[in-house]
Amino acid sequence: MSSFDTPNGSVVTSYAKAATRTITAGGVTYAYRELGPKAGIPVVFFVHLAATLDNWDPHIVDPIAKNRHVITFDQRGVGASTGQVPDSIEAMADVAYTFIKALGFDQVDVFSFSMGGMIAQDLLLKHPDLVRKLVLAGTGPRGGKDIDKVVGTTYWDVLRATLTRSDPKEFLFFNRNATGKPAAKAFIKRLQERTVDRDKPISTKAFQTQLKAIRKFGRSAPSDLSRLTHPTLIANGDNDRMVPSVLSGDLHRRIKGSELIIYPDSGHGGIFQFHDRFSPVAVEFLAR
């Protein structure tokens, strides 16, 4: 029986039911979840700022896990993973490399969102042969205009959320309009589908370290993205307040042969608002 079959031998394809596992590498214990059939090239998910294992939308993960081995993980110092959060995106990419190699994989596909997409770019530039295909959602390039402003936007929206007793992601990821508000509520509800064995929330110190790393990434000299020749799918909403939507177009221009999808009347969480349209596209892209 493979490690994440259920006792009756059926494969777990529901993220809400995927067991949390750990693996230790370089003195750090990483928490991760895996689901889907355990064969072929796995799809490793790189999560966003302040996120833990519990922050992936099952309506994105589950369709991919139907036919693919999916792995999500907590970065060093986040959630149930031990150690300290690295103070740069490049160092986070090194952490991701360590984790993937610890699991014994020589090649993976990467599905990344927001800060995860920044980490993915640095990983590919350093280890081009490790990754076969790349999904970059709600993200931007090193040195991208106004990425460094994410800190102010984040703190402002955290404050707004606190005052209205809502989740900051409702403000950060979605437009505050007639379409955005219900989409935000539905997304937050989906994140609650898992009721047992939930992850530990990120600590304030870890969150602040991540924000500083993003600011540094935004203020750094641009990377040479012409070196990325991997099949790449880029997606965002047309009104991303965290990582400006124009930067998705910038990535598309600089990564040769990449595909770009911009969803209308949506923000940073465009792929979550339009999960019913985006999931089939992501599944097809990764299967191609």
UniProtKB/TrEMBL annotation:
Protein name per its UniProtKB record: Pimeloyl-ACP methyl ester carboxylesterase
Fetch the InterPro entries from UniProt: AB_hydrolase, AB_hydrolase_1, AB_hydrolase_fold
Q: What region holds the AB hydrolase-1 domain?
A: 43-272
